[in-house]
Amino acid sequence: MGYEVDFLGVGSESKSGDAIAIRFGNLHGRRDEQTVVVIDGGFSDTGIELVEHIRTHFGTDTVDLVISSHPDQDHINGLEALLNELDVKELWLHQPWQHNQNLADEFADGRLTDSSLGERLKQNLERAWSLAKLANRKGIVLKEPFTGLTDKSGAVKVLGPSQSYYEALIPDFDGMPARADKGAVSNESWLTSALRKVTEFFANWGEDHISDDGQTSSKNNSSVITQLIVDGKRLVFTADAGIQALAHAADQIDGCQSGAELKLIQIPHHGSKRNIGPTVLNRLIGEPVPHGEQRSVMAIASTAKAGEPKHPRKAVLNAFNHRGARVLVTRGQGIMHYHNSPGRAGWSSLTPEPYHFSYEEEV
């Protein structure tokens, strides 16, 4: 048994995104001995690249499973091309408009109804709604990816979110009305944004410059966190999940009886500083290690070619380095992580990201 995990190089300029193509099984054998999975499709133009990548490197027009982690455009937009151009058997996609029972009670405006809020969610998340309709038209099996869902092989499993956690996040999705139990939360003002400046930081090995208090959006926290276990090796894909969502996923890993060893973890939200903290990182990877020591764990951040200093944050890369992970960043280029797979012409080994003893960051 083996696997290939390809992080496509999404983002030719400054906007980062995710598009991940996976195949596992007997990669030296026939197609029917393999499973092909896609997690997210990047932007619209990424979808065609993803289709050609699967045809060229996986040698197939059939995708067994597509997982849409959450409905941000840098993750979902490219999936329409995938469903149109390839033979997709199953799609895992959250459908929040089907979780509107008693939703009106969450909001201050008494004129709202559960039905009207369901329609609002369809409009606000039009790409997800369109993808669900497309899957139904094509006869693709459509499931909602909540904790515990597994694929036919049993190797792919959803670690989060649970349905109850997901439903608790929906009232705070972008474009929803003001909540009844709290005031509106404003985005960063234009003045604050204009005053942001780039500052140089200095770091010592083992000192985390990330916090357990980081906050991300509810939509990001609704991201599907996916686990793949092949040949005793665990691979974890985090999309844009934040600290709270990752802690729930860590609970699932703690309860896993497989004994699988972590080999790959996706650095959440393209290396954003708000999505990871030292406590949950210790749970997922382990405690910091002495300088020069390494674990057999690869950590990959999917970032745009010109995404820095926002994506990825050097403090985040350092935190993964502290814990002995070998850190790689796409920066608009594809990266393949593999085990027991055939060689691939034209692909060469990468040097892991160095520890950044000094770096510039927007503050």
UniProtKB/TrEMBL annotation:
Every Metallo-beta-lactamase domain range: 32-95
Gene3D superfamilies per the UniProt record, alphabetical: Ribonuclease Z/Hydroxyacylglutathione hydrolase-like
Superkingdom assignment: Bacteria
InterPro entries: Competence_DNA_uptake (IPR052159), Metallo-B-lactamas (IPR001279), RibonucZ/Hydroxyglut_hydro (IPR036866)
Protein name: ComEC/Rec2 family competence protein
Lineage: Bacteria, Pseudomonadati, Pseudomonadota, Gammaproteobacteria, Chromatiales
